[in-house]
Amino acid sequence: MAAKAGDNPDSLMSLCTVFCLKNLRRTMCYTGERNKLCLRPDVFLPSEICDKLVNVYMDLVYTDSNFEAQDGFFQLFSDPRSTRLTRLQLRDLVRDKDVEAIKKQVGKLSVTRGLKSCILGLYATLLKSDFLLRLLNLGGMQAVVDVEALLKPLPALTSLDLSGVYLPRPAFLAQWRDRLASLVLYNVDLSEELISTVVQMSRLRHLDISRENQRNSKFKMTRKILTSIVQSLGNLVSLDISGHIMLDNCTVPQFEDAMGRPSIEPSKSSIYPFQELKRPLQFLGLYNTTLCNVTHIPAYKVTGSKNEEQVLNAIEAYTESRPELAHRAINQLFDIARIQHCSQLLRALQLVIAALKCHKYDKSIQVTGSAALFYLTNTEYRNEQSVRLRRQVIEVVLNGMEQYQEVTVQRNCCLTLCNFSIPEELEFQYHRVNLLLLKILEPARQDESIQRIAVHLCNALVCQVDNDHKEAVGKMGFVKTMLNLIQKKLQDRMCDQVMEFSWSALWNITDETPDNCQMFLNCNGMDLFLDCLQEFPDKQELHRNMLGLLGNVAEVRALRPQLLTSQFITVFSNLLDSKADGIEVSYNACGVLSHIMFDGPDVWSVEDPERDWVMDKMWDAIQSWDVTSRRNINYRSFEPILRLLPQGISPVSQHWATWALFNLVSVYPSKYCPLLVKEGGVALLEKVLELDSSQPETKDMARYTHTHTHTHT
């Protein structure tokens, strides 16, 4: 059998790192004075492990809703004798005291947006030492900072990111022309002076002069400028010119572009300046330019919007530091998955998952990412996905539902969950997903489509699960939430899918779960039942769901006295004549009455209608049902039915129970004959045949059911 997408397990290093971070005091740390987190004295951590610990810690704080930030974590890395840090990607969650703790030993420092205040303090400390700073990211630095003065004392720089920084006098960058290997000038206003300075940097291997978009850009990317960059920077392996206005004379004529199969050979390039390259580039950013549409591009990896490969490259390249571009690329992936076909499914899913984790507070990423996940997990792609990959999707969807209360995100996430087998595929997050869905359904006036999907999911989650799960969900407020929805629909005099799904969910969650049945009664469920019956007399599906639920309530002996009122008995008796949904409503009404009758005449406290009259009506109803009827019902256990067999106090209850078994084993022998044998039903049918109180018609059905079951097991 071929491996499915996403089957590769996490590395042992990754698993151990996450385990240690989630169990710091049980692994590498102990609790010192004043509950301070301290590194064990016998622990020495090399740079590979320290870098991994810090960077994974930041990821967990950002992406794992169950992971709590540890006060004092960064202080663990304050002593270079026991810990070694070489490269960090610091984020907003790092405080000044954290930077203070690690400043003694950071060998390479990359600082993202949102941390510019604390970099200055660290920078001042570094200048006082003999430290050689080689990598610096000042992207987004405020205009009030004199970047030239800040950088001049750092002669050893080999990598510099000045994204979005104002450079009024760019010539000062020539100071590093013989050292810089990487220069990022994303969203920097380009000028002839800046370009002439850049092309002097002969050691550059990575140059990024891209823009977010073409608006407000006075600079035009000409053939002459591109040619100058290619000719002057002979060591270049990576170039990004995304977002620039390209002049038409950069590309070969259309007839020439269409010749031959796509090639990455520089000599065949459809973009004139790149014909000067000595070898194909490893990376070329052409996103939001016209150049990405040509046929022959001399690069192994190209960002653009021409095809799926370019779009995925764009998501990969821009997710971490340029969410505004990643959002656009994910939107294009969404269109590919929705309208065409996604051929790189594993890569697409992994990139979208990474983007959603990285930017859980970014509305645009969350909206487009969750929409893309819906199409990437639907039936068309399902067989290509491993269990592990699908679990990753579920986790990131639940993260989105937890962190972002936006209508479109919530709808997309709920729709995506509908692509999974419920409850099986959601069981590993069962408690969490139920809590989130109930939270969605709390508001008095929720978006109609979200409400419908969320109730459908709630119903599916409590169908065919064990009683422990149902009891746990009941304690979360499930019963109350469903009854509130029903109450609102009643006020609006509307019987829609939300109303029907809510009753169906209550039917499922009360199945063999007495605590939930009690909650239903305590929350005035019977009043809502009567109101719905009166308001919607012709809604067959609604009646079936309500009577199925009341059948569950009637199975609980301690609760039956609450059903034994003149009003309820009259309603149940009248429903015996119902033809709604075949025999289902009549059958369930008779089931409710059968359990009540089973308690005997001594507890019958109702004067009108009389017990005998109700029993006669039950006999008439049962006699009218077609025993070959196909059923709209699903039994996990026969126990509530079987307990009505070996008794003589209520022959009509025994008759109803025998008819139910007779029908089910006749119509669905492969499913129900083994269940009847497993639960000891055969011996109880023999008991029916032995009892003098059993009616002849009941014995005939019992005899047939007994024989039929033996034949099919």
UniProtKB/TrEMBL annotation:
Keyword Transport carried by entry: no
GO CC terms in record: Cul2-RING ubiquitin ligase complex
InterPro entries per UniProt: ARM-like (IPR011989), ARM-type_fold (IPR016024), Armadillo (IPR000225), LRR_dom_sf (IPR032675), LRR_Zer-1 (IPR056845), ZER1-like_C (IPR055142), Zyg-11_UBL_adapter (IPR051341)
Keyword terms: Leucine-rich repeat, Repeat, Ubl conjugation pathway
Pfam families the UniProt entry points to: LRR_Zer-1 (PF25013), ZER1-like_2nd (PF22964)
Gene3D superfamilies (UniProt xref): Leucine-rich Repeat Variant, Ribonuclease Inhibitor
Sequence ranges assigned to domain Protein zer-1 homolog-like C-terminal in this UniProt record: 356-704
Limits of the Zer-1-like leucine-rich repeats region domain: 149-289
Family listed: Belongs to the zyg-11 family.
Protein name in UniProt: Protein zer-1 homolog
Organism: Astyanax mexicanus (Blind cave fish)
